[in-house]
Amino acid sequence: MTRTRIHPAWYVAVVTFVVLISSAGFRATPSVLIRPLHDEFGWPLATISAAVSINLILFGLTAPFAAALMERFGIRRVVVFAVTLVALGSGLTVFMNASWQLLLCWGVLVGLGTGSMAMAFVATVTGKWFVEKRGLVTGVLTAGGATGQLIFLPGLAALTEHAGWRTAALVVTAASLAVVPLAWWRLREPADLGVLPYGATGPVPEVKVANPARRALSALGGAARTGPFWLLAGGFAICGATTNGLVGTHFVPAAHDHGMTETTAASLLAVVGLFDIVGTIASGWLTDRIDSRYLLGMYYALRGLSLLVLPALFAATVRPNMLLFIVFYGLDWIATVPPTVALCREYFGDAGPVVFGWVFASHQLGAAFAATAAGLVRDTMGDYRLAWLGAGILSMFAAALSLSLRHRKPIGTPAPEPALA
Predict the structure, then answer these.
(1) Which of 161, 235, 137, 178 lies closest to 19, judged by CA?
(2) Same topology for domains 1-192 and 211-408, yes or no?
(3) Of 103, 177, 224, 406, which one has the greatest count of Cβ atoms within 10 A?
(4) What residues form the membrane-spanning segments (predicted)?
């Protein structure tokens, strides 16, 4: 086997991080287009928001199939195709004149593209390239994917405000195309380079299946017959509901209800993203050392406590107690991913990345449900208080689900299809 001073796995990890950061920026764009599109075309906000909802759902549902496609065709082919879809979807928006075209471009094309670069992509890369430090690398890559959206949001909003929404869409198109050669150059498989995964002491069998859709569905069928899958999926659905769905969508309008400017509230969300980098990387490091069940239980319980006190922290100005919440909540924003990935691999073996894709789909469905439910609470009750309290209680329930997971040998899943020659 070829020996190099710097193992190729680290180059793959760096490029994966860049791809994830870029993908997060692509996902952030639709939220800043809502008001400009409404002003220019007169489309109802509900219609424009439907594109975001389609994007959010496809972002989750695409993940398991993308993971299976990566097993069949390799990581770089799938990622290059996904980035090209994003460029196509973003670029075509400058020519649209009907709302259904928005649903197609930002909802379907960008949703499918970014969904192929979701957290299942992280699980696939770390599964193929890392034996040692897998948890730490998972944490770093997850931080890139989860935080990029929050970091890019203020910049995209400013670009849209000063140069117009078409300029922002074209910038996303150019950024997407710029990622293509980088992904094609470095996102290779260990076998392509004649090396072992980082930390491997012997050959690691490659899983290649003839039918990716069948692989994804059979992995779901096998996993769905087990208790751990539903415990993990249930907890992760609550994770999505209490992050992207609730806080990511409604924190800014909730703060505005209390007199805080939208710019200030958006900046606080960006700070959440910055502290998420620290929290998720630390979570990856802890996942290599502490039982993932205990980590998930702790993360969900602490998140629940923070959401229960949040209604009392809103004010017209940023007070120290709100800053304390932002830091604390940011550390826990998506720290749940590394231990969830580790548990999927523990329970489902080689099918772990594909199964995690389905678990991640539950995350997005939970987010979509919470985004709608919180809006209904605001319309009905006049404020978000009940939404925050309900999310806090749900987080406590997620902690209980995680602590219910038992130690056991990996659960059998359907036998993989015969490897291709």
Answers:
(1) 178
(2) yes
(3) 103
(4) 9-29, 41-66, 78-95, 101-123, 135-157, 163-185, 229-252, 264-286, 298-316, 322-343, 355-374, 386-405
Token couple for 419 = 């490897």
What pLDDT score does 31 carry? 65
Q: Give pLDDT, residue 411.
A: 47
d(CA 318, CA 309): 16
Residue with tokens 């919180």: 374
SS3 assignment, position 384: coil
The amino acid at residue 135 is G
Residue whose C-alpha is closest to residue 281's, from 122, 142, 145: 142
Instruction: Give CA separation, 383 vs 39, 66, 248, 306, in Å.
Output: 26, 39, 17, 18
Spell out, as residue ranges, where the chain has pLDDT lower than 50: 1-4, 410-421
Nearest to 145 by CA among 44, 247, 276: 276
The predicted model scores a pTM of 0.75
CA atoms lying within 13 Å on the CB side of residue 165: 21
pLDDT at 46: 66
Q: How far lies 397's CA from each of 32, 194, 245, 311, 368, in Å?
A: 33, 46, 17, 20, 19
Q: How far apart are CA 125 and CA 304, in angstroms?
A: 31
Supply the pLDDT for residue 416: 42
CATH architecture of 1-192: Up-down Bundle (1.20)
> What is the architecture, at CATH level 2, of domain 211-408?
Up-down Bundle (1.20)
The pLDDT of residue 325: 94
DSSP 8-state class, residue 201: S
The two tokens of residue 329 are 């909540």
